[in-house]
Specification:
Largest sheet: 6 strands, parallel
Order of helices and strands: HEHHEHEHEHEEHHHH
Distance between the termini: 64 Å
Strand content: 15-25%
CATH architecture: 3-Layer(aba) Sandwich
CATH class: Alpha Beta
Strand order of the largest sheet: 3-2-1-4-5-6
CATH superfamily: HAD superfamily/HAD-like
Number of helices: 10
CATH topology: Rossmann fold
Number of domains: 1
Helix content: 40-55%
């Protein structure tokens, strides 16, 4: 009886955990082209361009989560630039983490340790957002393996279109995330509609799919039932048409 009671209490506590967002910066939020050294350096220093819809997505999720944490591989000297980028788009992350080139030479360990420390210290589940340029997919997969009760979702922005662990969700735009968050019931249909309208308002798709980013020419997701079928089909057809003409 005592064991059953303890199991019930533990399951209730896990269910009651707050949800936070821990997001990579370069090529997840910001258009950096991190896979190319010179363009990445120039963009890190002199540009403040984000992927369309990402700021609005964070704002829409704001009421459903208990904090945004930006985890960047950029060295400390770029911290001010990152904070200015956040301010430009009216984003107020709870913390911006940058890397010490001396103490954090192992980028994998640096990101893994930060995420684990954050989910444990805040007693939260995390929505993890990253891209497939660096080691985000593998880092997040390890976090999920070791702390499954603390991971709400994993979204990997497809830039290189490389092979990634099957446990992550590959996304091509903010709307993919919004659709998945709707299915997870962290967004309602009204909030999803805001994201759909934002997607439909994009006039320059080259900002969503810059030349350095993989552009899909075939369907990557499908819905066979429910109220989001038309939304998914419209998004998919719009993206594929652009990519075929790029």
């Amino acid at each position: 009886m005592a064991k059953l009671l303890l199991a019930f209490i533990l399951s209730f506590n896990l269910y009651a955990l707050d949800t936070i967002i821990i997001s990579d910066l370069d090529d997840t939020i910001k258009r950096t082209n991190a896979g190319s050294t010179i363009p990445a350096g120039i963009n890190a220093l002199f540009t403040r361009k984000v992927f369309p819809g990402i700021p609005e997505l964070f704002k829409t999720l704001e009421s459903e989560v208990n904090g945004l944490y930006v985890l960047s591989n950029s060295p400390h000297i770029f911290r001010l630039n990152i904070c200015r980028l956040m301010k430009k788009y009216n984003l107020n992350p709870d913390h911006v983490q940058t890397r010490s080139l001396i103490k954090n030479k192992d980028k994998f360990k640096y990101k893994y340790d930060y995420i684990v420390k954050k989910i444990i210290s805040t007693n939260s589940k995390a929505i993890l957002m990253g891209d497939d340029v660096g080691e985000d997919p593998e880092v997040y997969a390890k976090v999920l393996k070791n702390y499954p009760e603390h991971v709400a979702g994993i979204y990997i922005h497809v830039i290189k279109n490389r092979e990634v662990p099957s446990v992550v969700t590959k996304i091509h735009s903010f709307l993919d995330i919004a659709l998945s968050e709707y299915k997870s019931e962290r967004l309602n249909f009204s909030q999803l509609s805001v994201m759909v309208n934002r997607f439909n308002s994009i006039k320059k798709f080259k900002k969503l799919f810059p030349k350095f980013k993989h552009c899909p020419r075939s369907s990557w997701r499908s819905e066979t039932a429910g109220e989001i079928v038309d939304i998914v089909n419209n998004m998919t057809n719009t993206v594929i048409k652009f990519c075929k003409n790029r």
